[in-house]
TrEMBL record:
Gfo/Idh/MocA-like oxidoreductase N-terminal domain residues: 6-120
InterPro entries, per the entry: Gfo/Idh/MocA-like_OxRdtase_N (IPR000683), Gfo/Idh/MocA_Oxidoreductase (IPR052515), GFO_IDH_MocA-like_dom (IPR055170), NAD(P)-bd_dom_sf (IPR036291)
Organism: Paenibacillus zeirhizosphaerae
Residue stretches making up the GFO/IDH/MocA-like oxidoreductase domain: 131-255
Protein's name in the database: Gfo/Idh/MocA family oxidoreductase
């Protein structure tokens, strides 16, 4: 079996999850770690193996690199992905797909014309609780889906934004808590609910005003084509990083996700349906444990020549909803 070569661009806080997930794959070799800060790239290469570089363009001519992981700031995703896809590389990018819709569409188009695949890291779809919720919705065993609730209460302070000059700015991050921290929960709500017909919402900067341009708090209401509705509340102004909460209401019961455990409430009784495995080394508990599963699945699709299901077309759905909430908030304030 041919050994696949991998590269990671961006050696910030998320890259260890990618490096560790790749290291678990027997038929993949991590060959290159890239960061504009050469010291970061060399430190990562020393820890995970492979070479270090400070310019991603070196990848374009390397035949020993098949898959490239983008762990870079949001506004850099599109430019890098388009060039890599043109060179025939497979690209797996961290969320969001891009900082804006136009950039994201360029990525989708580049993937459509490339022999390489584009995958988007929306790893929470791989959590056992998420898979169970989706299965129950599809089966109809609890009747019609009526409504959903998602709550994300995390903590980000001035020091967090000071670490990266791109954070907290519309032009480079593309938004705040909604596009960065809450997009996983938003993605799950739209995955569970299907096509969205109407979006309302509002974003505010409650605590970090003067520190960031973007929002630290958001709420939104979604109406789906099925008739179901959903609400989302997200903030970076909480005291700690609290586990994400989900509630899925059906005609004949309710599913509750608390601390990544999934419970079914029905007929006055609550039953534990599933609980998460321990997070892999290097992961933060509130990130979930789906990275290794998602990355393993992406490589399996590449190896088998099958189209990966979490591609750009799928990844752009949650990004569109994020932007629609921003637009709803903007127009509401104008009124």
């Amino acid at each position: 079996m041919k050994q696949l070569g991998a590269a990671i661009i961006g050696c910030g806080s998320i890259h260890p999850l990618h490096a560790l997930s790749v290291s678990e794959l027997e038929d993949v070799t991590l060959r290159l770690l890239v960061d504009r800060d050469r010291n970061k790239a060399e430190a990562a290469a020393s820890e995970y193996g492979g070479e270090a570089a400070d310019d991603y363009l070196a990848i374009l001519e390397r035949e020993d690199i098949d898959v490239v992981h983008l762990c870079t700031p949001h506004h850099e995703h599109a430019g890098m992905a388009v060039e890599l896809l043109k060179a025939g590389k497979h690209v797996v990018t961290e969320k969001p797909l891009a900082a804006g819709i136009e950039a994201a569409e360029r990525m989708v188009q580049a993937a459509d014309h490339s022999k390489g695949q584009l995958g988007v890291v929306l790893q929470n779809r791989y959590n056992e609780s998420s898979q169970t919720i989706y299965r129950i919705i599809e089966s109809g065993e609890l009747g019609r889906l009526v409504g959903m609730k998602g709550i994300v209460t995390w903590h980000r302070n001035e020091g967090y934004y000071a670490k990266g000059g791109w954070r907290g700015k519309w032009a480079t991050e593309g938004g705040g808590v909604l596009i960065n921290q809450a997009i996983h929960t938003l993605d799950l709500l739209q995955w569970f609910g299907g096509p969205v017909e109407a979006v309302r919402g509002s974003v505010t900067t409650d605590v970090l005003d003067g520190v960031i341009e973007v929002e630290d708090t958001a709420h939104a209401h979604f109406r789906f084509a099925s008739g179901a509705t959903a609400i989302l509340y997200a903030t970076n102004a909480y005291a700690v990083n609290s586990p994400v909460e989900l509630e899925i209401v059906f005609e004949q019961g309710t599913l509750h996700q608390r601390r990544d455990c999934l419970y079914l409430s029905r007929d006055g009784r609550e039953t534990l349906l599933c609980e998460p495995p321990l997070a892999i080394t290097g992961a933060k508990s509130y990130w979930g444990t789906g990275h290794r599963l998602m990355i393993r699945d992406f490589y399996a699709h590449v190896r088998e020549g099958k189209k990966f299901w979490l591609d750009g077309t799928e990844g752009i759905k949650s990004l569109r909803l994020v932007k629609q909430v921003y637009e709803a908030s903007r127009t509401a304030h104008i009124k």
